[in-house]
Specification:
alpha/beta; metal-binding; magnesium; two-stranded antiparallel ribbon; HAD-like_sf; lipopolysaccharide biosynthesis
């Protein structure tokens, strides 16, 4: 059998993650690599990582709400979030902390029950407001300094999947989410 590659997280991080009921995500730099691509005709293009999409679906199946909060407006973001079934899409939101406060009221949760994942200065107030702040290794240094957890994968390269697996492990649902893929005929 191959070596055990399953991620291990510190106990204090698992403890913070165990109470999370909402995973809120930035888009550019988290769900994408942060590159803005435009065709010659001016059409925007984005690349979303399929690993992240499955992780998001697994987290939602485990009963954790998912929201996407982005400062930009993009029909591509709207399409991808609709494809994933993400119920809370907040585009054109420069103040992400205010958006989180709105979700706290709508979902009847506390800031302590939020995991927020972002990579740049507009995300910093939301990271500091949330009970669990998550970032990526290619995020801005000050954001990394204030986050509780920094993924090993870069934004747009499976980082959201890592965050989802942390949350699934913390709520005791990681094994159940993986079991269908381990079953044999």
């Amino acid at each position: 059998m191959a070596e055990n590659l399953r991620p291990q997280w510190p106990a204090d991080l698992i403890e913070k993650a165990a109470v999370v009921r909402l995973l809120a995500l930035d888009v550019d730099g988290i769900m994408t690599d942060g590159t803005l691509l435009f065709s010659a005709s001016g059409d925007e293009m984005k690349g979303f990582n399929i690993l992240d999409g499955l992780g998001i679906k697994q987290v939602m199946a485990a009963g954790i709400e998912v929201a996407v909060i982005t400062g930009r407006r993009s029909p591509l973001t709207e399409k991808r979030m609709n494809d994933l079934g993400i119920p809370h899409l907040m585009q054109g939101r420069e103040d992400k902390k205010v958006a989180l406060r709105e979700l706290v009221g709508q979902l009847n949760i506390t800031p302590h029950q939020i995991a927020y994942m972002g990579d740049d200065l507009p995300d910093l107030p939301a990271i500091r407001y949330a009970g669990l702040g998550i970032t990526v290794p290619n995020g801005y240094w000050l954001v990394r300094q204030h986050a509780d957890f920094c993924t090993t994968a870069a934004g747009g390269s499976g980082a959201v999947r890592e965050a989802c697996e942390l949350l699934l492990c913390a709520c005791g649902q990681l094994n159940a989410s993986l079991q269908p893929y381990l079953e044999q005929d």
